[in-house]
Amino acid sequence: LMRVCMGVLLVVDVVVRYGERRVFMSRHGLWPPSAAVRFQEEHALSLFLASDAEWWCTALLWVHAAICASLVVGYRTTAATALAWLSLSSLHARNMLVLNGGDSFLRIALFWCIFLPLGRVWSLDSFLEFIAHGGDAPDPGTRTPEPPSLSPPAAGNSP
Q1: What pTM value is reported for the model?
Q2: Contact 88, 110 (CB under 8 A)
Q3: Which of 7, 62, 101, 155 is the most buried (most CB within 10 A)?
């Protein structure tokens, strides 16, 4: 559920930013690439600053949207999460003046999601793994064991 919510949030974010791309990301907008490069932090790199052409920004936003859609459906989840984090960080480094605390939180949460097993359930990854095993459940030795139940044993089950 976290993967799906994170992916949907990223897709909504890219749709909103797509509508504002001419104002905030083009050379004729409020924050042209020449100004962004001058005030950019040393450690921040952005693919959006590689060109000041509007088609470049549009193409990168479409690539970012495709990566986020891959995260929603759970296809190559770990790679999609890492690429989503890289593209979101690049997008945020392009224009830091329009960011808020929620953007920073989203970027940090997405970074930590790289290390979580987000593709284990309700994903194309888990479905493809199921198909690869001939429709049988994978070997139980490859799955993590269920945590012990903290509820008391049912009546009649005690020795």
Answers
A1: 0.77
A2: yes
A3: 7
